[in-house]
Amino acid sequence: MSSLRFVFLFLLISLSASAQKDYKLWLQYNAVKNTALPAEYKNNLKGIVVLGNSETIKIAEKELQKGFQDMLDISPEIKSDLKGENNLIIGSKSALNSEIKNELKSDFDKINEEGFIIKSISLKSKKQIIITGKNDVAVLYGVFNFLRILQTNKSTQNLNIADSPKTNIRILNHWDNLDRTVERGYAGFSLWNWQKLPDFIDQRYIDYARANASIGINGTVLTNVNANALILTPQYLEKVEALANVFRLYGIKVYLTARFSAPIEIGKLKTADPKDVEVIKWWKNKAAEIYKRIPDFGGFLVKANSEGQPGPQNYGRDHVDGANMLADAVAPFGGVIMWRAFVYSEHDANDRAKQAYAEFQPYDGKFKENVIVQVKNGAIDFQPREPFHPLFGAMPKTPLMMEFQITQEYLGFSTHLVFLPKLFQEVLESDTYQKGKGSTVAKVIDGTLYPNKLTGIAGVANIGNDLNWTGHPFAQANWYGFGRLAWNPYLDSETIADEWLRCTFSNDDNFIQPVKNIMIESREAVVNYMTPLGLHHIMDTGHHYGPGPWVSNLSRPEWNPTYYHKADKNGIGFDRSKTGTNATAQYAPEVEKLFDNLETCPEKDLLWFHHVSWDYKLKNGETLWNGMALKYQEGVNQVEAMQNVWKKAEKYIDNERFHEVEMLLEIQYKEAKWWCDACLLYFQQFSGKELPAGVEKPTQTLDYFKSLKFPFAPGNG
Ligand code: GCW
Any catalytic annotation for residue 431? Predict the structure, then answer.
């Protein structure tokens, strides 16, 4: 072989090897080598005893084999009986013998249907490790958790874990269209290849299910909430069934979005009125048809009477009528309706932030028991920072599920490194005070505050068919972190970052510590360079790419950034206090008081709740104008600091991912500077003040920034 050809071949092989690393997500199963642990692990894992033979148990067995092979270079013998010691036993409760069941009696009492036990036990004086749960999927969760112990280089001595998910529905919402475009998707096209389904099962479907199972996600809504009724036709249901057949083995239920006008569009009815008998019958039949194909179908997610989507109000009915009609259709089969509370009207000029609460809160207690209302984390729309949505805690008789956005519509697409679990945690920890101090959003969501049977967390997926799934290698951490928080909404985001880095890159502390710091700081950085001090919704129109605080010409007032920042000669910010729209009154009295009073309102939310003069003194003594300018600059500086830290990561990880992140950080830096310059130049027109010392001069004029157009920016539905 000529040396040139050899070099070329070598390049190809090494390229594909690192591309695979990107693809493998947090399931890298890197060789364990940097501690004394390999010996301990190998000692503890002489054989694998597999009890049960379902497809799911086989998947669990294969996963263990793969993990042991890749991480420890061992292939323990697979057995079906309990001979010898130092075995790893896997199997669900019903497959265990009475001796083991007795041994684990109190452990089984501690877990729910989906929970697992990982425990070092002694049977007939022989040491064993057991992974079990009440069903096979729970065992699979346990297996992934056990493998994570090895991945993160923790000891396997004296294991004693009993862990259960705190929410029932842990679900991804894909805003995927049938033509494979993804609304607000920045990682390529949709994974679902409808054209080739049902006969062609892409390996990606399996890998997707495996990745989700590894973090406990148990549901997926395949289609966009801006729905197309065609998905409910037999032609498409056959394809959905094929996906459900793959996902089921990994404990993942399939859900679809229901377009409210489907009875007209595909059912040839004249109306979609939820009180019309023909319409009611049509949905009942449709549900029966779906459940015949997919007996464990999860149910429907519905966006109704929101942003142009049809709904019950088209017929003079309300959200309760619509949701309950669909709930009746799926109830006989155990299905659930997730009804979205993301509503705002163009006819209400007062305050968009108040509308979902105003409309939904009075419906408390009126929904059927298989309806769960899905509420976005904040009252506007997935901004870099929003105070928690006032509906949380305010509907004691209605199950509410959280809707987070994993895809970074307003946080730099898949170009910016932003670790979202930090944002998620901030929301989950927020105290609603609805039942006194300690009534956190997490407690509303997991059913501790009000005992609701249904609980859940949804995340708008950031997944597409890009080689690395999520566009940015670090956006994988947001998928991972979402899953971990859906399982346990009380987890600390720092713990999640630590786990993810170890599983994805390396266990070397010299790598972990600084890079974890980048992740933890990244959320505050994006707030600083986009929307500091409570600013919100000042992005450009339609695609939402880049700054557009000057936009004021859109047909609906509440689509204009000027509606939100209200900058004028006197100051800036949206007065939602008593002197303004009184949106603060939608919170419990303690929270209302906190936000309402300029003195006590957290500065991070200042301009969300108050219109403040440019000379207002911030807590650090700076005027608002200077403080705001310095915050913008701080955001830019933070990205620069992230770049410097990342440079030092080169020697710890593979070239490909290192360079990808390096290039992306460079773009992030440029875009942070763009946000900073454009916003400060624009707001300066109102403040009439100089930029304070420490803030770099803008690189372009305001007119230049205003002239930028991006007709093909991705994700624009
Ligand atoms: O944030 C807005 C998005 C829309 C989205 C809508 C929603 C799916 O810009 O693209 O539509 O929210 O959540 O329904």
Answer: no
- Sorted by sequence, the CB contacts under 8 Å of residue 161 that are 6+ apart come out as 116, 117, 118, 119, 145
Q: How far apart are CA 468 and CA 479, in angstroms?
A: 12
**Predicted pLDDT at 347:** 79
- Cα angle at 475 between 472 and 479, to 5 degrees? 145
pLDDT recorded at residue 695: 98
Which residues make Cβ contacts (< 8 Å) with residue 340, sequence separation at least 6? 225, 301, 302, 303, 304, 306, 373, 374, 403
Between CA 443 and CA 452, with CA 448 as vertex, the angle to 5 degrees is 110
Q: What is the CATH T-level fold of the domain 169-491, as seen in this structure?
A: TIM Barrel (3.20.20)
CA–CA separation, 381 and 327 (whole Å): 26
Residue 386 known to be catalytic = no
Q: Distance from the CA of 74 to the center of ligand 1, in angstroms?
A: 48
SS (H, E, C) 125-181: CEEEEEEEECCHHHHHHHHHHHHHHHHCCCCCCCCEEEECCCCCEEEEECCECCCCC
Task: Tell me the C-alpha distance between 44 and 373, whole Å.
Answer: 47
Dig out the tokens for 244 from the structure. Answer: 């459900």
* Distance between Cα 104 and ligand 1 center (Å): 47
Cβ atoms of 485 and 196 within 8 Å: the answer is no
State the pLDDT at residue 3.
54
Contacts of 107 (CB under 8 A, 6+ apart): 117, 119, 162
CA nearest neighbour of 340 among 374, 306, 363:
374
For the domain covering 505-574+612-717, report its CATH number.
3.90.1330.10
381 is catalytic: yes
The CATH number assigned to the domain with range 19-163 reads 3.30.379.10
Residues of the chain with pLDDT under 70: 1-19, 717
**If DSSP codes are grouped into helix, strand and coil, which group holds residue 709?**
coil
What pLDDT, on a 0 to 100 scale, did the predictor assign at position 341? 98
Residues in the chain: 717
Nearest CA to ligand 1 atom 1: 381
Amino acid at 420: L
Q: How far apart are CA 192 and CA 593, in angstroms?
A: 48
Site of tokens 């998910």: 165
Query: Rounded CA gap, 67 and 57, in Å?
Result: 15
pTM of the model: 0.97
In terms of Cα–Cα distance, which of 183, 252, 181 is closest to 221? 252
My answer on whether omega of the bond before 198 falls inside 30° of 0, hence cis, is yes
Match 């506007």 to its residue by tokens: 380
CA distances from 148 to 66, 128, 580, 717 (A): 13, 19, 51, 38
Atom of ligand 1 nearest to the CA of 382: 1
CA dihedral for 81, 85, 86, 91, sign (positive or negative): positive
3-state secondary structure of 432: coil
Residues 174 and 190: beta-carbon distance below 8 Å: yes
The residue type at 433: Y
Q: State the catalytic residue, choosing from 61, 70, 114, 381.
A: 381
* Domain range list for the chain: 19-163, 169-491, 505-574+612-717, 575-610
Q: What is the pLDDT of residue 1?
A: 44
**Strand arrangement of the beta sheet that strand 77-79 belongs to:** 77-79, 47-50, 87-90, 126-133, 116-123, 160-163
Mean pLDDT of the chain: 96
- Out of 63, 359, 409, 466, the active site residue is 409
Q: Are 152 and 166 in contact (CB under 8 A)?
A: no
| pLDDT (0 to 100) of residue 16 | 55
Interatomic CA distance for residues 472 and 418, integer angstroms: 10
From the alpha carbon of 376, which atom of ligand 1 is closest? Answer: 13
Q: How far is the CA of 177 from the centre of ligand 1 (A)?
A: 13
What separation in Å is there between the alpha carbon of 227 and the centre of ligand 1? 12
Task: For residue 40, give both structure tokens.
Answer: 């301990």
Atom of ligand 1 nearest to the CA of 306: 14
CA 294, distance to chain mean position in Å, is 26
